[in-house]
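To make this tangible, we now present a fold written out as tokens:
***
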Amino acid sequence: MPYVWNIDKNHSNISFSVDYVGIGLIRGIIREFKGQLIQDEPDSFDKCQLAFEGCLDSIDTNYPLRDKFLKSRTFFNTNICPVFTFKGKRMEPIDDVHYIIPGNLSIKNHKQLVYLTTRYNGMAKGIDANHTIGFELTVQINRFDFGLDWNHHNEEGTPMFGKALHLHMALFLTKHSNAPTAHY
């Protein structure tokens, strides 16, 4: 029987950043997301499947005018493409706590193979006595590969936004109540 771990949204977060005018970063978060990790073997993450989706309409960059633009037809077009998804079929170990997760990232109807750099932070019991595991995952993508190619240039000709989009996920996953306890 597989071990099913669900993302605990109350303790997890998905954030992103993009270069701004070559001098700093614009940062934001995705407020609504869900996902799970399915672990086939109790003592190994090697054959795990990780899947999650984020609601693009929940983008928050701490600037409502920019958020409205990002949700518009010009950028994410959330009326037609409301979510982004990731589906990984395995975790490739680098050492005892670091993994690479190859998988398909889909944004705005563009799908591409990406590699999430992953750190396993351990397992503990929460206040509710449920087993919880923690991971940090990062990936850098070229936003143009996903149809996110809008840009504006300042008067010196510098692009306002860089091509590189950095995603960072701090995930706490709680063991599904019907799944047996895994031992690490």
In short: The chain is about 5% helix and 55% strand. Residues 180-184 have pLDDT under 50 and may be disordered. The radius of gyration is 18 Å. The domain at 3-175 is CATH 2.40.128.110 (Lipocalin).
